[in-house]
Specification:
By secondary structure, the protein is of the alpha+beta class. The chain has helices at residues 25-33, 35-62, 64-70, 79-85, 320-332, 349-358, 374-384, 451-454, 511-514, 565-574; strands at 3-5, 103-104, 106-111, 115-120, 137-139, 145-147, 149-153, 160-165, 180-182, 204-210, 215-220, 235-239, 247-255, 258-261, 272-278, 287-289, 294-295, 308-316, 337-342, 363-367, 389-394, 399-402, 428-437, 457-458, 463-470, 492-496, 502-505, 561-562, 575-578, 581-584. Helix content is 18%, strand content 25%. Its main location: membrane.
Length: 588
């Protein structure tokens, strides 16, 4: 097999020139000869512009994005005050009431769309609502309240999560008060109730996971963009909520949204909240990022099991209709275990997973509800999968790894992907495969036989790449660009030639399927398509605007090469004749 070394570079944008307005000689003359008239016009213009400016500022203030952006400019409280201010409300004098309702200790964070994610504290035992009468409720100051709707149970700490709407009166209130979660809407608040400031989703410690040697925190806010990583010595990890007893340990790595720190130097017997603290400098005080994450002294992440040679992981949202095809195909060519990071799906994903598991496919669902955290999720998978996987393939569910060498194979083999990887003695720690991007191919809805059968027309130029990485070779920082990882110094990264292996990316699908991409982008560093920003980014679709409006001729776009190779191969491997044609194995 021939492999070639790849060098990646990032495209740079060239700023456009801005043409200035020319002067008007007649207007200038009028200025000098009619000063009184000029002043009148100036006064009129002033009274027009001031209300417009105030209206614009008010509109910006009312926007939910304003609150999210505000975290980048707000001055954080000193560490001692900050930790205390985010302690969960435990001071009610009547947490349990005669009517059977009770206050539930919980953390909360403001979510996009004026929702609040409420996460029950580890010491509370709260099960998902089972009966119609179980009316979990969020209470706010001044008697406002909202129904707490069950979301899911956190997989590692077993914490129940709810979602509450934020009443309109608080949407323009800064800071926003953290609601009190109660088991009934008849709960009566104590006059002693405290209302700590509500953390925002883009400035918070949102997850923590332990390895054999350290603790990994996932944090939004401190490193705000690509290449803006602050040095690790700028931070400390803080274990515990009380300032005088909290344990502080040094941070050993600070890259993107991933921070690694040493274990506490004292034993911790029960789960404790863990924070990220910015160390004081000559110009600034010590400050702390709020947290909804807990450090658990029990490190076991998965049940003991034999280590798999090849695993695959992906982050998904509402992909139930695609998952069977993706899993069945890749399992047949060598993937032994699938780790699915669910980014808050509300379709039939869990049902599809359970059916696949009943058919003896090895699938694990990891609830990963945090918005715009794909890079952090993939870094988390590198830690989470390290105990049970040797190599990890990072691939989306609309992407299929394929080798032209398999064309003459009558059946798939579980050694096929293995044949694309280096030997055990190699210094290669990562193999990447270039992508072919397929277009709508005149489809108007999801092909019932699957994407490999329905989409057959693609762009000619290779686009990006996806990778299979040796998890033990991933560098300490866990840096990932989604398409590949940073490697330890002794390992090399190589890219396979397209004649050896390629990824068929069924990216531009039938419009009814494709427009769902406007709802969300999961990468932390990719602008949402509805934002009028960075229009020439490679992460945008050529010729597509900022709104989910079907462009003319969408069905014929991106059709430069007719490519039937994987369609023919999968039909040979997974199709069987039926009365009106053929049926694929993943069809139900």
């Amino acid at each position: 097999m021939t492999l070639s070394l790849k060098t990646c570079s990032s495209p740079r944008s060239t700023p456009k020139s801005i043409a200035g307005a020319g002067s008007d000689d007649a207007a200038a003359s009028q200025f000098f000869h009619h000063k009184t008239s000029y002043r009148a016009h100036t006064t009129t213009l002033f009274f027009i512009l001031v209300p417009l400016s105030l209206f614009g500022l008010f509109s910006l203030y009312c926007s939910p994005n304003t609150i999210y952006r505000a975290t980048f400019f707000v001055t954080a409280l000193p560490a001692k005050s900050r930790i205390v201010s985010y302690v969960t409300n435990t001071q009610d004098s009547n947490p349990n009431q005669s009517n059977g309702s009770r206050r539930i200790r919980a953390d909360a964070v403001l979510w996009p769309g004026w929702n609040i994610l409420v996460i029950v504290s580890p010491e509370e035992k709260v099960l998902p609502p089972q009966l119609p009468g179980e009316n979990y409720t969020c209470f706010y100051p001044n008697g406002e309240k909202a129904t707490a709707r069950f979301v899911a149970t956190h997989p590692f700490t077993n914490r129940t999560t709810f979602r509450c709407g934020l009443p309109g009166i608080y949407r323009h209130h800064h800071p926003i008060p953290t609601p009190v979660l109660a088991s009934s809407k008849t709960f009566e608040l104590s006059p002693e109730t405290r209302w700590p400031d509500l953390p925002l989703w883009n400035f918070v410690v949102f997850e923590a996971i332990s390895t054999e040697n350290d603790v990994v925190l996932f944090v939004k806010g401190p490193n705000r963009g690509l290449g803006s990583n602050k040095p690790p010595e700028s931070f400390r990890c803080v274990f515990g909520e009380e300032s005088d007893t909290a344990i502080r340990t040094p941070v050993t790595s600070s890259v993107q949204e991933v921070f690694r720190c040493s274990f506490p130097n004292k034993p911790i017997d029960t789960p404790v909240k863990v924070y990220l603290e910015a160390v004081a400098t000559d110009k600034e005080e010590t400050k702390t990022v709020p947290s909804v994450a807990y450090f658990s002294p029990k490190r076991t992440l998965t049940e003991p099991r034999k280590k798999s040679l090849l695993c695959a992981t992906t982050m998904v949202y509402n992909v139930a209709k695609y998952l069977r095809e993706w899993v069945m195909y890749h399992a047949a060519i060598g993937i032994q275990r699938f780790i699915i990071y669910d980014n808050g799906s509300d379709d039939e994903l869990n049902d599809v997973v359970e059916v696949l598991k009943s058919e003896k496919y090895d699938l694990t669902i990891v609830l990963w509800i945090w918005p715009k955290t794909q890079e952090a999720g993939f870094s988390h998978a590198a830690v989470y999968g390290n105990d049970t996987c040797t190599w990890m393939m990072y691939l989306d569910v609309d992407e299929f790894l394929f080798s032209p060498f398999w064309d003459n194979k009558s059946q798939p083999s579980d050694q096929m992907i293995r044949s694309l990887l280096p030997s055990d003695q190699s210094i290669i720690g990562q193999v990447s495969f270039k992508s072919h991007e397929f277009g709508p191919s005149n489809q108007t809805k999801h092909p019932r036989e699957g994407v490999t059968q329905g989409y057959t027309c693609r762009r000619e130029e290779d686009q990006r790449h996806k990778s299979i990485v040796l998890l033990s070779a991933v560098e300490h920082s866990l840096y990932t660009a989604i398409h590949h990882f940073g490697l330890k110094g002794e390992y090399e990264w190589r890219v396979a030639d397209t004649e050896e292996g390629v990824v068929n990316h069924y990216k531009y699908q039938a419009w009814q399927e494709f427009k769902a991409k406007f709802k969300r982008r999961v990468s932390a560093y990719v602008v949402d398509w509805t934002r009028v920003s960075n229009p020439k980014s490679r992460d945008r679709t050529p010729g597509l605007g900022f709104r989910p409006i079907e462009p003319e001729g969408w069905g014929q776009r991106f059709c430069e090469v007719k490519d039937l190779r994987l369609k023919r191969l999968t039909r040979k491997w997974f199709g069987h004749p039926v009365k009106d044609g053929y049926k694929m194995a993943w069809q139900r």
